[in-house]
Amino acid sequence: MSAIRQVHWGRIVVAGLLSEVAVFVIFLLLLIAATLAGAPDVARPMSTLDYIDAILSSFAMVFLFTLWLGKRIESGFILHGALVGVVGILLFAIMWVATTGSLAQPPLYVVAHLLKVLGGIAGGLVVERRRRRVLRVERAQVGS
Question: Which residues, 6+ apart, have CB-to-CB distance to 122 below 8 Å?
Answer without folding.
Answer: 59, 63, 66, 81
